[in-house]
Amino acid sequence: MTPMLAVLSATHVVLVVVVVLLLFGAQKIPELARSLGSGMNEFKKGLREGEQTLLRASETPVPPAPETTANPKSE
User: Fold this and answer.
1) Are 29 and 18 in contact (CB under 8 A)?
2) With helix as H, strand as E and coil as C, how does the chain read?
3) Beta carbons of 33 and 41 less than 8 angstroms apart
4) Which of 8, 18, 61, 63 could form a cystine bridge with 12, CB 3.0-4.6 A?
5) Beta-carbon contacts of residue 61 (< 8 Å; ≥ 6 apart)
6) Torsion, Cα of 41, 47, 49, 51 (10° steps)
7) pTM for this model (two decimals)
8) Distances from the Cα of 67 to the Cαs of 12, 63, 64, 70, in angstroms?
């Protein structure tokens, strides 16, 4: 359990559930949970795509720098 969640007791959880029920009503809660779940899935999908992009970018070889020839100054 994370330290932040360790401070929540059963009373706190029940109080939060009651407040949510009062604010949104019992019929809106499944809709809110569905939208929260789909949002989390989209976030995870974006993280995976970003990770794959970074992996692909790190696998592509870097082209060598062009060689420069020194032009000696004629005196």
Assistant:
1) no
2) CCHHHHCCCHHHHHHHHHHHHHHHCCCCHHHHHHHHHHHHHHHHHHHHHHHHHHHHHHHCCCCCCCCCCCCCCCC
3) no
4) 8
5) none
6) -150
7) 0.50
8) 67, 12, 9, 10
